[in-house]
Every structure is written in structure tokens, then in C-alpha cells.
Design brief:
Blueprint lengths: L6 H33 L2 H4 L7 H21 L8 H27 L6 H21 L5 H34 L2
Helix pairs in contact: 1-3, 1-4, 1-5, 3-4, 3-6, 4-5, 4-6
Length: about 180
């Protein structure tokens, strides 16, 4: 029988496990950032903007802090609150991130930053949380369906926006 945690604990695990994943990416990205771009087929490189390590770190800090703020201020003790939608939506974004990591593993042929936590933490936790959200009506059936296209928009264009903004911040902080 699986472990059953309270709803608040399950929802707080979203930013906590996001922090764990982003920590792995942050620690390991310096070693794999250039290799991932170089190992990608040319047609995929168009979608990967040139990113410095410092810029990537700033972006990780910003999105992780945002996840914690949504848990803290999002009234997640109530079903169908905006924070509930954001945290369940973040899990859908992380599922897309798992797909991206699996694709990168297949293309590059070996470990890249974030692969371990994507497969061993994010994927199983997504399945757990989505099941709970659906069974306990945290965001409603229509809400879950609407979060799918939102996750696609957040995973690529919004994250590229964070990387763009992080470029300015990293140049200010690090001169990089």
C-alpha cells in the first residue's frame, strides 16, 4: 500500500521536489550545457537559445522561488484556488520536462543535467499528484483539461521568457 499524505503536504511537495530537480540541473548544467546544444540535431538547435550558465542559474532560482510563492500565497487549502491550479499545472509542465529529458537522453546518448530527478522523482510524483487532483476534484475535470495546453505554453515560450529576463539579471549580477 502506498504512502498517503495530506493534501497540503502533497501540494507543498510540488515546489520542494521542483527545488530538488532544479538543484540537480543547476549543479550539473555547467558540464552539460554546451554538449546538449552541440549534440542536438541542427533543426532542434533553433529552439534552444544560447544560454550562459549564470543565466541558467538565475532562471532556475526565479522559477523555483515563484513555485514556493504560489504554494505560500495561493490558498492551497481550498480546492480550485488559483494556487491549486498553478501547482497542479506546474506538475504538468514537469511532465513535459520529463519528455524533454528523455528526448535529450536519446539524442545525446548519456546523462544530462536533471535526467535522474526527472525520471525518478518528477514522473512518479506527477502520476501521484494528478491522480489525487483528479480523484479529489482539486481543480475539476475541465480545469485539468485546460491545464494541458497551458503547460505546453509554459514549458517552452514562458521558460524562454524567463531565460531572456535572466540574461539581463545575470549580466547585472555576474557581468556575464
Amino acid at each position: 500500500m502506498g504512502v498517503r499524505v495530506g493534501r497540503m503536504t502533497a501540494l507543498w511537495l510540488v515546489p520542494i521536489l521542483f527545488l530538488v530537480h532544479n538543484s540537480e540541473e543547476g549543479i550539473m548544467m555547467r558540464a552539460t550545457l554546451d554538449e546538449v546544444r552541440i549534440g542536438m540535431p541542427r533543426f532542434l538547435r533553433v529552439f534552444l537559445p544560447p544560454v550562459t550558465y549564470e543565466q541558467y542559474l538565475v532562471s532556475l532560482v526565479l522559477v523555483t522561488a515563484l513555485a514556493f510563492c504560489c504554494a505560500w500565497f495561493g490558498q492551497i487549502d481550498r480546492s480550485r484556488s488559483w494556487g491549486m491550479y498553478v501547482l497542479v499545472g506546474l506538475q504538468m509542465v514537469l511532465l513535459l520536462n520529463v519528455v524533454a529529458h528523455v528526448t535529450t537522453l536519446a539524442v545525446v546518448g548519456h546523462y544530462t543535467a536533471g535526467s535522474v530527478t526527472a525520471l525518478l522523482i518528477n514522473l512518479p510524483f506527477f502520476l501521484y499528484l494528478l491522480g489525487r487532483a483528479r480523484n479529489e476534484d482539486w481543480v475539476g475535470r475541465r480545469g485539468l483539461i485546460l491545464l494541458i495546453p497551458v503547460a505546453f505554453v509554459v514549458h517552452t515560450p514562458v521558460l524562454f521568457g524567463f531565460l531572456f529576463i535572466s540574461g539581463f539579471i545575470s549580466r547585472f549580477l555576474f557581468g556575464a
